[in-house]
Amino acid sequence: MSTLSRQTKVRMIAIPLALIIAGVWYYNSRGNTTGPEHQKKVASQTIDAGDCVQNKGTESDPDLKKVDCGGAAADYKVKENWPLDHECEPGLSKYQVTRNGRPQYTLCMEKLNG
């Protein structure tokens, strides 16, 4: 009976382990594309400059919903919609959507009603 070399044994363990790690990384890097959180983010991506939004969440955990600019529900008017990360002009509020810690887009908004 022949014995496997130490190098062959290491390869038998390292290759499947590397494939498992790569698979987990790939799955996690895609983000959640099926849950309600993803749907809210997709809806927010349809917000363009000139649109108005209502914050249905809090200042620290906003949940923006596109609303009619003439209505009382409008909290902010979007001045700019930037892909990825962007610093807004002074006086504008910044709303940024991230996925796995990476900015996906940034809204620069003017506060309405006060």
TrEMBL record:
<protein>
    <recommendedName>
        <fullName>Secreted protein</fullName>
    </recommendedName>
</protein>
<keyword id="KW-1133">Transmembrane helix</keyword>
<feature type="transmembrane region" description="Helical">
    <location>
        <begin position="12"/>
        <end position="28"/>
    </location>
</feature>
<keyword id="KW-0472">Membrane</keyword>
<keyword id="KW-0812">Transmembrane</keyword>
